[in-house]
Structures are given as C-alpha cells and as structure tokens.
Design goal:
With 268 residues, the chain is α/β, with parallel strands linked by helices. Helices cover 43% and strands 17% of the residues. The chain has two domains: 3-208, 2-enoyl-CoA Hydratase, Chain A, domain 1 (Alpha-Beta Complex); 212-258, Lyase 2-enoyl-coa Hydratase, Chain  A, domain 2 (Orthogonal Bundle), CATH 1.10.12. It has helices at 35-50, 72-76, 97-103, 119-125, 153-161, 163-172, 178-184, 196-208, 212-225, 230-245, 248-258; strands at residues 3-4, 11-16, 19-24, 56-61, 65-67, 108-112, 115-117, 129-133, 137-139, 175-177, 189-191. It has a seven-stranded mixed sheet with strand order 1-2-3-4-6-8-11, with helices on both faces.
Length: 268
C-alpha cells in the first residue's frame, strides 16, 4: 500500500514503488504559493530526499494550474510572502524549495499540468526533468509585476537557453506555450494532458530501476561540475567511483550484465 502522509493540507505526499509524488494542493487559487504551502513543500522535499526507499520524486499540481506564482492577493494586503516581514538582514534561503531542490541528490521530475508562472516557473526549472501537458505553459511574468525571477530563474535560464534567449524571455516577461518550451529546450517532452502523470511515472520508474547510489552520485557530481574546472572535476569523479565499486549494487549490476538478466538493485 502507498505511504500516504500529507505534510500539510496544501501539500499532498505519497510514496509508491520507490517514487515520491508531491502535489501542490490549492487548486481554488491555482496553487499560488502561501506561507504554509512553502513550508510544506520544503518539508516534503527534505523528507523525500532523506528516504532511502525513494529513488525519484515527481512534483506536480492539482487542478488546472501547476503554480501561478506567489499569492499576490495576500502580499498586496501586507500578509504572507512578499509582505515585507522578511528583511535582507534576516533572509535565510537554505531551507526553502529552490535551494532544497538544487541540493537534492534524488532525481526530480516536474509534471507540469497547467500554467507555471513566476515562482511556479522557477520551481519547475529547479527540477532535473520537466514533462509538460499539451495544455501547460510557462509565464516569465516577473518584470510585468515589477519583480525579478526570485527563485532561480536568473541562474537556470541563461544555462538552459543561452544568454540572449534568456534576456529576451526575462526582459519581455513573455508566456511560452508547451510546444514553444519544448522547442527552446525548457522541457524534456510534451504529452497529451490526460497521460501526463502516467508519462512522468514511466520515466520515474525507469530512473528508479537503476542503481540509486549511482544515480544520486551522478547527479551530485554533475551539480559540482557546474562550478569546477575539468581537471578538478574528473579527480572528484574518480574519488566517487572508488566507493561505488565496493557496493552490492555495483556487483549486482556487473553480474546481471554477465548473466544477461535485469539487475535487482537494493541501494546498498
């Protein structure tokens, strides 16, 4: 039976078959981010990354939107996120979703079921792989609201699109349909809306079938490689390879290859 343990009401959390599914659950307001939702998402991501049974995470939204950004209604009333309660002196982003997503060793897939705008777009970009419904879109509407991509967009977009395309998207605040996102390289694929979760689970299952320690180490080294020179990086890769070669999973992978059978990895 799946382990169903919602972190908070606005976040649904489920684990089955080595896959954790985290769902933003405020469809009545298009999953705009509130304080409780932000805290709940952080807790769910940390919980999934710490769970040795979880080999892949799917992040998605309930209803017709993935996440329409921050809850601007509460912010304009002086409440919640963006209310001015947090100053630059007290700002601590270490345990917020963008930073947690970036530092997670567990692979993450964003199943974008509808609009991903502002904070929602940044959150989607923070996942390793994005699969979009043909009804979904990304809206980089930050400058249209008088703000900037506050949760990773200014870091991710130049790397995903190149400098000029990132500038064009951020400066114009343009909205891209799913097929445009695919053409620009912002998602892995676009699928019919009704098959989105099945497609995400199929990819997550494929990832989860591989040796989890090797997958996590690969992700960790790719992340390190973003800021390392080549010579130092390959040295770190070799140092990570040595302990992996001593694992049960490495022996199982080699034996499965020699015996021409699927490997049964245990994460040990």
């Amino acid at each position: 039976m799946p382990d169903t343990a919602p972190t908070v009401e606005e976040i649904l959390y489920e684990v089955a078959d080595h896959i954790a599914t985290i769902t933003l659950n405020a469809p009545d307001r298009m999953n705009t981010i509130s304080g409780p939702m932000l805290d709940g998402l952080s807790q769910a991501l940390l919980k999934a990354d710490a769970d040795q049974d979880v080999r892949c995470v799917i992040l998605t939204g309930a209803g017709r939107a993935f996440c329409a950004g921050l809850n601007l209604e509460s912010a304009t009333k002086g409440e919640g996120i963006g209310s001015g309660a947090v100053s630059s002196a007290s700002l601590d982003l270490r345990n917020t979703p963008p930073t947690i997503l970036f530092n997670m060793d567990t692979p993450t897939i964003c199943a974008i079921n509808g609009g991903a705008a502002g904070y929602g777009m940044d959150t989607a970009l923070g996942c390793d792989i994005r699969i979009m419904s043909d009804k979904a879109k990304m809206a980089a509407a930050f400058t249209k609201r008088g703000i900037l991509p506050e949760s990773g967009g200014t870091w991710f977009l130049p790397r995903l699109l190149g400098w000029e395309k990132a500038c064009e998207l951020i400066f114009t605040g343009r909205t891209l349909k799913a097929d445009e996102c695919l053409a620009e390289g912002l998602c892995s694929k676009v699928v019919p809306h009704d098959t989105l979760i099945d497609e995400a689970r199929a990819m997550a299952t494929e990832i989860a079938s591989n040796a989890p320690l090797a997958v996590q180490a690969s992700k960790r080294l790719m992340r390190m490689g973003l800021s390392e020179p080549f010579t130092e990086h390959v040295h770190h890769v070799f140092l990570q390879l040595l302990p992996l070669l001593q694992t049960e999973d490495a022996r199982e992978g080699m034996m499965a290859f020699l015996e021409k059978r699927p490997a049964a990895f245990k994460g040990k």
